[in-house]
Design a protein that fits this description.
The protein has 422 residues and is an alpha/beta fold. 28% of the residues lie in helices and 23% in strands. The strands form four sheets. Strands 1, 2, 3, 4, 5, 16, 17 and 18 form an eight-stranded mixed beta sheet that branches. A four-stranded parallel beta sheet has the order 6-7-8-9. It has a four-stranded parallel beta sheet with strand order 10-13-14-15.
């Protein structure tokens, strides 16, 4: 299969063509030629005014629900949503049924996703059954293809157990991912603790629950000299702790979600269950600090935190609604809208090179002879999502007009192009 990508602006610091408008010829999944105007014929031509191309984007925290929760999402529908969102690689959570806590479950995901347009990379559980009691066989899962380790939306609460996990993964140069949340603090909280929660009469979840966990886990990472990634960070104080940890030489990194950069707790005044997320939305002042941290490079990556929920889990009272939103398809446009001054170079760092560096993935380059792992986008375009490739439709951005547009992906021999908006 031969593909010609015409007049694409290259965004790749590792490429000799970075910052140039080039034609890119791809043959059988590899870049054969790059130049200003290639005189080449191809079976498929990719062209679009304002076309930008970068190394493939990576999401490091999405739930595809397979096995066990296929009524929320499947590997196939999740991959379709990821491809539509510009992702060539997605880390999938172990919060399945059964949990991804053994080599058998990791191998199942690897086999079942092998033919999909997106490279699905399973995250192995830290504890058996995600119960937070005994360590899972992380070494076996690593050998079977687990890209990292986490208990996903059930972060490890016991310090001694996480300590053992960090020691365990050090031997395989692995990374543990934590959503920083001491679940004993504000255990019944439904939203951010503050003026809005008081006004709405909803129990609040204080940021202290996050900050306690970040401080504790950094101490554990320092003791073990192991690698730790915090995702879904929402507290300015957490960011400060992480900054200090990095400066002291610890292998600690962090990511934020796009929706924590876009929405605030004030958007919950009509009790929209699609905005009930974990961790909860924070107040306006906190969101401004998060945005600044992303702009200034304190944040290493943006993680979608794609958490699809079926209709019945959202069309209930706010108290009973399941947390999470379906958002892989809109992550880039939300990031572009929330941070309109964010450069394309920094955007690609957050979506591609940053996640790859944290987890030791190969850094694909837009150069001759390299495998074609590419994301196509248009920063000047707009996105108005009216339908979703995800099986679940709990995406609060449906129907909203956002800045920036994803055009598709090329992942080796797999080409996925989004349909033009009507």
């Amino acid at each position: 299969m031969t593909i010609l990508i015409e007049k694409a602006f290259v965004v790749d610091r590792n490429s000799p063509h970075n910052g140039k408008i080039c034609d890119i010829l791809v043959e059988d999944g590899r870049i054969k030629a790059i130049g200003p105007e290639l005189n080449a014929t191809a079976g498929t031509v990719v062209r679009h005014p304002g076309l930008h191309v970068s190394p493939g984007w990576v999401d490091l925290f999405s739930n595809f629900g397979d096995p066990g929760y296929e009524y929320k999402e499947t590997l196939m529908t999740g991959a379709a949503a990821a491809a539509a969102g510009g992702y060539t690689d997605v880390f999938v959570l172990p919060n399945t049924k059964p949990a991804l806590d053994s080599k058998t479950q990791i191998e199942y995901v690897m086999r079942a996703s092998a033919s999909l347009p997106v490279t699905v990379r399973p995250i192995g559980a830290v504890t058996k059954g995600l119960e937070g009691k005994d360590l899972a066989e992380m070494y076996d899962m690593h050998n079977s293809g687990a890209v990292a380790f986490s208990d996903g939306t059930l972060p490890v609460q016991a310090a001694g157990l996480l300590l053992k996990g960090l020691q365990y993964v050090k031997a395989i140069d692995g990374v543990i991912i934590q959503v920083p949340d001491d679940r004993t603090v504000g255990a019944n909280g439904l939203m951010n603790e503050g003026v809005i929660s008081t006004r709405l009469g909803l129990p609040g979840k204080p940021m202290m629950a996050e900050e306690l966990m970040v401080a504790r886990d950094i101490k554990l990472a320092r003791y073990t000299e192991s690698k730790l990634h915090f995702t879904g960070v929402t507290s300015p104080r957490s960011l400060e702790y992480i900054r200090r940890a990095k400066e002291s030489g610890l292998a600690v990194s962090c990511s934020v979600t796009p929706y924590h950069l876009f929405y605030t707790d004030a958007d919950l005044t009509d009790y929209d269950t699609n905005l009930k997320v974990y961790p909860p939305l924070r107040d306006e002042a906190t969101v401004q600090v998060l945005r600044k941290a992303v702009m200034e490079g304190q944040v290493d990556a943006v993680a979608a935190h794609h958490q699809p929920q079926e209709y019945d889990s959202k069309i209930v009272e706010f108290e009973y609604a399941r947390p999470g939103m379906s958002c892989l398809e809109t992550t880039y446009a939300v990031l572009r809208t929330a941070l309109p001054d964010l450069s394309v170079t920094r955007t690609v760092e957050l979506l591609s090179s940053g996640p790859r560096a944290i987890f030791g993935l190969a850094q694909p380059s837009i150069a001759e002879g390299q495998e074609a792992v590419l994301s196509f986008f248009d920063p000047a375009g707009t996105t108005t999502l009216t339908t979703s490739a995800s099986k679940s439709k709990n995406n609060p951005f449906l129907g909203k007009t956002l800045r920036g547009r994803v055009l598709g992906i090329l992942n080796g021999r797999q080409l996925h192009l989004n349909q033009p908006e009507s």
